[in-house]
Amino acid sequence: MAWNVVFRFPFKHICCHRRASRPRLSSLRPNNIHRRQLMVEGLWEPELSSDTLKRVEKFWLTEIKQRNEKLQLKKSKKEKFYVLSMFPYPSGRLHMGHVRVYTISDTIAHFHRMNGKEVLHPMGWDAFGLPAENAAIERNLKPDDWTYSNISYMRKQLKDLATTFNWEREVTTCSPEYYRWTQFIFLQLFKAGLAYQKEAMVNWDPVDQTVLANEQVSVVRIKYENISQCLSKYLVIEVDENGCSWRSGAKVQQRLLRQWFLRMTHFSKSLQDGLKDLPEWPSSIKTMQDNWIGDCQGCVFDFKMELSDKNIEPHLSVHTSFPELIYGAAFIVLSPLHTLLKKEDFITQLDPTVQEKLHHLESEEIDIDLGIYAINPVSGAKVPIFASSSIHLEENVEEHLGIPSASLEDTSFAARHQLCFEKVLEPSEDDSEDNKTVVLNSGKFTGMSCLDTREAVMKLAREQKFGGHQTSARQYDWLISRQRYWGTPIPVIHCPKCKVVPVPEEQLPVILPKLDSLTSKGVSPLTEVKEWYNVPCPKCNSAAVRETDTMDTFVDSTWYFLRYTDASNSYEIFSKDKCDWLMPVDLYIGGKEHAILHLLYARFIHQFLHQQGMVACKEPFKRLLVQGLVMGQSYKTVSSGKYLQKSEVDFSGPEPVSKSNGEKLEVKWEKMSKSKYNGVDPEESIAEFGVDTVRLFILSGIPPEHNMPWNVDAIPGVIRWKKRMWSLVTNFRDVRSRHKEEKIREDFPKDEKKLNEQMNFTIKEVSHQYTTDFMLSVAISRLMTFTNTLRGCSDALVASSPVYEQALCNLCIMVAPMAPLMASEMWQGLAKMDTHLTEMAWDKGVLEQAWPKAGEIEEEEKSHVTLIIKINNTSIGNIDLPKELLKDEDQLKRFILQSTIGKSHLDNQIIIKRTIIAPKVPLVNFLINS
């Protein structure tokens, strides 16, 4: 320790340093005297030493935690603001990605509270899932014990980050009080015909012994208008490029299992159209969802098959882009991978010669008439079913409805197999603007326009429940079954007489029983809990059994944001009045890896609840802020691909090499991972640099949507800025103390006008980042510039100018959401002065102050700007350049590289990933190999 404290007594000053010749601090005051008591006495430490910082943060962290415990949300006339960060999986420890997202959300929550709003900033835990179950098996623990222990520790870590969440609304998805209502939502879906069970070919993880849904193993090509805004060219979910599960590493297998599905396809068009109602979402995210859903110009019809085996699903669901031409359906084609062709019960019903032909289906391009028929649900006509490897279907599409009137390919197929079909199209002879095509040979629809027939046929299908919902050919329903223990039990009972029976709502929750052992995989261990598994049928009271599949954890996270609005309600899922007050979420913050699945699932469930009249708003998330990863620097041998720890790397030469053999290494910024030895422990960083420094650093330099390299070489810049702000308060106190007895008020009209303009500009710019762009790195740059402006003011201005005092107070207030601990101490340093502004609430802390309002700004158009240059998040200097260059990225980079700074710092360097340009700062950040 190196204390440097000034004690002021009536008779003298005593400067105490930790040296042998001077008394220790503990010998001068009792140990139980708090830092705040010193401030109440009007004392101040002139320098922000590391020891001072630790004691300041220790005290104010306790104060903020105590204040947070009293944080309550009450419905009032105030404007509400709901800021939500994606809740974490309780893995046991926070990582830097957590620190980034929760620092962003906490900062924005503080801002809106200071603007007088009722702010909901909740926290909870996405606590079910495979990782907890596997970890429990490996450690011979129970998943709930493991999970709740992790939650307790991570909750403490979040509080130690000085975050202020509404902890009274905390939710945990593995708690029966929560998943009772997840089961309730499932039952509403079941009653609406949107939850169903069927046999399907599924993707099976042979190690984890459970299903991975189609969405979790698909590789989908995403189209972009602007490639610079891409999240990636391809979206890969839960599987690597070799088709292996990302969790276990095992090759994904295909299995035929009876599974539970949710009919997302009934909402495809609604979900796609809803994207137009989200103007504040990133266009790249909306494009990804739009492409995932696909072209919703057609619909699905359920054709009843003529089969004798009752074990086979009687309906065949087939998509068509031409529902208005359904009377012209001539055949159905199944792809070689179709589920029916994998079922032994189905194959045995076919003619032996057909069975023999099917052996060649995947090796040859052939068409096979299966000799069976399906019934057209509209016309009642028999439609022959073929299997074909010669017709190439769209990705994820397993069947095709052949309508010769709609395509030449279908006409050719029908002719090749001598199939009869009806001509159902006739162009109108009317050449006016109202020219329409009408349908023929289509029963009661004959003579109607295609458009009117289309709507009428789909309406008929919906009313008679054989399809008719607009969707794309490759969109599929959501498979939610998981063959593992640690998940929400599906509230269904299987009865030999009554078949599938939903658990009565009054019997919810169906509680997941505690188990002594979880060693079995593939077959649910729930079957072994006889008193739980064997139950009477709710309808006929006969012996029955519970469903043992549990729900995909994505189901738990589709509605957690709604539970936050009324988390302690034990009588209903939430109060509609409370929910409608707080919803929609004003700002949702989370990782870009959830750009499709979680967000799409959550929108689906929310739109269903809206359809049921349970929520007022149709879309759950008004605005979306997608933050990138925090990247660590990795060192990998080129020859073997082995990752090395930093201690195994020799940095003495011009390039890093392996200490063991001198081999040149591949140095990259990659997603933090234990296996790559590039992770950073948040606790260690906080212990070394302090809470506020970590918060400021993780907000600075890089816009939230970009991946951020964790480069500790840039942290000293943040520390220097903190010290400069601290010195402003020190100088203000010293100058005002020296001029305390002087009553002369000097006038500085020009200086005050300039300072006032700078202050208003800063308030406007920082407020804009908190509310519109969310580029908090830009806000920090503005505050740094404003700090330098205040440092350049004369002592005479500091001594007597109320404008200066207001500017310094506003700086402290604007920094507080990002660095609440140091700002709280700085505010106390200002509050204990005799001279201060009357409009400030000096009896309250800095986080309870009103956000400053910007006055009018006379903006002057400039032809040149000063550009901040950074390399790997570290400032290397500024250059002046024509403002026009900010509009042309190529010219801007060329100008920088040819400048003195560019030549001295960027010559022979390899720029990796991207060059990040923030024209509004203006700032350019080069990410390079160091």
Q: Can you give me a brief rundown of this structure?
A:
The chain has 930 residues and is an alpha+beta fold. The chain has 27 helices and 39 strands. A hairpin with a 3-residue loop joins strand 23 (492-495) and strand 24 (499-502).
How would you sum up this structure, described in words?
It contains 27 helices and 39 strands. The longest helix has 25 residues, at 749-773. The model is unreliable at 1-38 and 218-237 (pLDDT under 50). The strands form twelve sheets. Strands 12, 13, 14, 15, 16, 17 and 20 form a seven-stranded mixed beta sheet that branches. Strands 4-3-28-29 form a four-stranded parallel beta sheet, covered by helices on one side. Helix 24 (802-815) packs antiparallel against helix 25 (820-831). The protein is elongated. The protein is α+β, with helices and mostly antiparallel strands. A hairpin with a 5-residue loop joins strand 30 (630-637) and strand 31. Keywords: Aminoacyl-tRNA synthetase, ATP-binding, Cytoplasm, Ligase, Nucleotide-binding, Protein biosynthesis. Residues 59-297, 475-639 form the Aminoacyl-tRNA synthetase class Ia domain. It is found in: Mitochondrion. Its EC number is 6.1.1.4. This is leucine--tRNA ligase.
